[in-house]
Amino acid sequence: MSWTLGPGDLPDLARGAALLGTGGGGDPHIGRLMVEAAMREHGPVTVLDPGEVDDAAFVVPTAMMGAPTVMVEKIPRGDEAVTALRTLEAHLSRSADATMPIECGGINSMIPLVVAARTGLPVIDADGMGRAFPELQMETFGVYGVPGSPMVVSGDHGETVTIDTGTDNRRMEWLARGAAIRMGGAALIAEYAMSGADVKRTAVPRTLSLGLALGRGLREAREQLRDPVSALAEVLAPTGYSHLRVLFAGKVADVERRTVDGFAKGRARFVSFDGTSTLRTEFQNENLIAEVDGAVRCIVPDLICVLEAESGEPITTETLRYGQRVVVVGISTPDIMRTPEALAVFGPACFGLDAEFRPVEEAVPVG
Amino acid sequence: MSWTLGPGDLPDLARGAALLGTGGGGDPHIGRLMVEAAMREHGPVTVLDPGEVDDAAFVVPTAMMGAPTVMVEKIPRGDEAVTALRTLEAHLSRSADATMPIECGGINSMIPLVVAARTGLPVIDADGMGRAFPELQMETFGVYGVPGSPMVVSGDHGETVTIDTGTDNRRMEWLARGAAIRMGGAALIAEYAMSGADVKRTAVPRTLSLGLALGRGLREAREQLRDPVSALAEVLAPTGYSHLRVLFAGKVADVERRTVDGFAKGRARFVSFDGTSTLRTEFQNENLIAEVDGAVRCIVPDLICVLEAESGEPITTETLRYGQRVVVVGISTPDIMRTPEALAVFGPACFGLDAEFRPVEEAVPVG
């Protein structure tokens, strides 16, 4: 069932997608402004449920890549992602029937909407990470056999870089990251071109509508003076992300963050309001691990979301700062993201973490 | 007039092309071995004089790019340059009628011969630098209006990167260098695709045959126990490179060399045999400036060639080492390389040198 996404939906979607971005995926405010500008000029966009995409359809996902610390200062002009899509179409001698997000996040749930508004293509309600991940090989698309390349990286001077690494998605990431760094630290991309049948087989479904529902839940809770975390849990319960656990409540005590190798990498320390307990997180664009008093409570690919304590507003890793009062929640990921094949591509070891994956619902029993 | 270049020509060509490489352009021994291997399998190659190329012909130059310090250790598999050419052909939907060197040098005079042997295409007796330069925008092709992109960078895992920066050849170099660095510091390329008419208008003509003649001259001088420098001067006199000046004779006293940003950068100090005089050179892959006792004697784009004192064998910047006994000569470049447009792209200021270009024949009058 297709539906129309208009400017009025964007504040909710930006907030909910940023939550699914688990600390990364780019600044939600900037993403929203980009889509608003595109919709003002070109009108709303059509969203397709993955179930209704024709098996033979040609789908070209679009996104922004780069360190969020850079993306927040280097705003795209607006047409770079369309250039990436058009260049990939020309390279493959085939016209796209739809675009799709590659990840959830404040910017990367929005870029495909910009492309959809500007080109008139529909956008598919699904993505390839079910959250945000820092690297391009970390896609369920690739986990289940769709090659990421040929892909196109597009910069703000109209330049394009078309990368073909065959089925080697890690090498694709390596070369694309190099191009994005030389384009100033962030760039727009089109990659993982695939059939509608592959979308149904490999994508994490309905994450755009989930982002919208999460954002709406947070807003309504705020309007009704309800607890935002309970509101999130209610929205998530019937979905593939059914378990939400409160990991911690307290204040940001320390943030160490560097923009290095094209990523925002670092760690943060949080102290409970009574000062007796400590949460430590590590991140590479996205939050990777949450340890409370030395015990791992949540780890990739499960979601670690830092929220403003009062409003439930998601806080991205590049905006974490001393003194913020937060509640940190862990959210379980759909089964498609927890298979051995998936963990081999974006499990803890892929980030150099010396810990096994353990589902958040096991690590933190309902207490 | 076309001619055939066979395995027997390669030792002379490797030596002479390395001389024109003015310290860069890659190791002549490795280049020679690569062509020998290709010719053993595929036979000799046809060389076309630029004057006989059809105006409508489609010419795709091929080369290796990277720091010579890396190129000497990371030997190409052999088919990467053909992959680059084929990928560019596919991108432009046009088949090449010939390939051509982009520069003179131990490796880069040879790569197009590898491509020619493997594909059966002829190679054009001309190039785009009339020597070697470290950066891809430093081409007479570009100076006189041929865009370098779209271009293809090809690595040893079969991966390709197709770069399109419109008419911005500096941005092309920046992105291609980034790709080459991520491919391990060296890669094979196809770029500056152009018409036969553009070859006639923008290329430095007959530099392959000049390399061959210079190498032959050096070899014959050695066989006849004649002075190698006089032999070189005789070969050069009737060409566009008509002035040869001896800048210095002495020993290498100090070499400072780093592989940085994808280049071999550094400086060398030479002391005369009687210890009374000092030559200082600076290089970025290629020799850029030669100062004798503080006075500039030769500067880009004129050629600064360090030769083994006894044999006249060219010494590349990555093989310079303490104690080598050398004679250093300066060679004037053809007029097409000394115009204001050319100096704006590869004159002294383009390398951050604080000196004006002065023709070597003026800086060093015949003494």
TrEMBL record, chains A, B:
Domain S-Me-THD N-terminal: 9-164
Pfam families given in the database record: S-Me-THD_C, S-Me-THD_N
Domain S-Me-THD-like C-terminal: 168-360
Top-level taxonomic group: Bacteria
InterPro entries with a match to the protein in the record: S-Me-THD-like_C, S-Me-THD_C_sf, S-Me-THD_N, S-Me-THD_N_sf
Protein name: DUF917 domain-containing protein
Organism: Pseudonocardia aurantiaca
